[in-house]
Amino acid sequence: MKVKELIQNNPDGLLNIFFTAGYPNLTSTVQVANHLAAAGIRMVEIGMPFSDPLADGKTIQDSSETALRNGMNIDIMFEQVEEINANTDLVIILMGYYNQLLTIGMVKFLEKCKTTGVDGLIIPDLPMEIYEQEYKDLFEEYEIAISFLITPRTSLARIQMADRLSSGFIYLVADNSITGAASGSFSTAQIDYFERIKQNNLISPVLIGFGIKTSSQYKLTKKYANGAIIGSEFIRKLSTMATISQEPISRFVNSITNC
């Protein structure tokens, strides 16, 4: 699948940028994606706005609320994803919640993913057991990768299960917190955690996310994993832009990747 292949074919590390569909404006999704692609980003994670985003901190929650007020919905989001897919080579991941998929119906949702160019999903509240029992064959049929999350509190047995079931990558949550809560540097405990996961010799690629906002953090993630996911810090950058344009987005990407 494209998600895993892209990560494995970038041995120097990969930066995955998260942003919310329909933020800061309803039509911003395509603009942001196009500018990120032009800035050298290869993979994006598009948040599906939801009224109760359990894993997200205030920055992403606020962006989701704004997007919903802007009129964003799943149908519009898929139209925008299709346009992004037609105009860029980005690998596209959607991040959302189990309820959103159930409301539409899993088969219909995966069909839309396939036809519009979605490559993978991150659904934090989808239990791995339910995925394996009820949906794994469907995801494989529609060639949609899934990435499961692990945290510092995840047991070895659950880590191994996530490794076995993730067809995209393992999302290594950097801290026991919500998104955007970190200080801009990693603690000794976090580094020990990263090292412990690395020593498990997982078969899946690993990307580190939650609270990453600096080039030094990004550089360090590449020592222990295959790269990083940055979301809240990028959302904060978008919130400062009078208009969505190439120069500030390229400057942001460069500020992270030019370690």
SSE order and pairing:
Layout: H1 2-8, E1 14-20, H2 28-38, E2 43-47, H3 58-70, H4 74-87, E3 91-95, H5 98-104, H6 106-116, E4 120-122, H7 128-141, E5 145-146, E6 149-150, H8 156-165, E7 170-173, H9 188-199, E8 206-209, H10 215-224, E9 227-230, H11 232-239, H12 246-257
Parallel strand pairs: 1-2, 1-9, 2-3, 3-4, 4-5, 6-7, 7-8
Percent helix range: 40-55%
Shape: globular
What is the H/E order?
HEHEHHEHHEHEEHEHEHEHH
For this structure, the quaternary state is single chain
Rg: 17 Å
Order of neighbouring strands in the sheet with most strands? 5-4-3-2-1-9
The CATH topology assignment is TIM Barrel
- Highest-level CATH class: Alpha Beta
Strand proportion: 5-15%
Sheet/helix structural class: alpha/beta
Distance between the termini: 29 Å
Classified in CATH, the superfamily is Aldolase class I
Main sheet summary: 6 strands, parallel
Report mean pLDDT, rounded to a whole number. 93
